[in-house]
Design a protein that fits this description.
This protein is an alpha+beta fold. Helix content is 35%, strand content 18%. A hairpin with a 6-residue loop joins β2 and β3.
Length: 79
């Protein structure tokens, strides 16, 4: 799985870091939250809770094969 925080949607509320501080970090100086690392399987329920509590739906958790397929489609799609 691939965890990503969409910085443009993040309001910097810190809820994700409060729920799962080993995985999420709220940047200093007003920068967006970020994933410090990919979650362990034992942390999955906390990451899911962070996704649900995020007020702007900025947290994305996708399957690696889906991410790769989307990247490939984007790279091969003419503009």
């Amino acid at each position: 799985m691939k965890l990503h925080v969409e910085a443009s949607n993040c309001t910097r509320c810190g809820a994700c870091a409060a729920l799962c501080p080993d995985v999420f970090d709220v940047g200093s100086m007003g920068s967006a939250s970020r994933a410090k690392r990919q979650p362990a399987s034992s942390e999955r329920m906390f990451v899911d809770a962070a996704r649900w509590i995020c007020p702007t739906d900025a947290i994305r958790l996708t399957q690696d094969d889906v991410v790769e397929a989307l990247q490939h489609d984007h790279a091969t799609t003419p503009l």
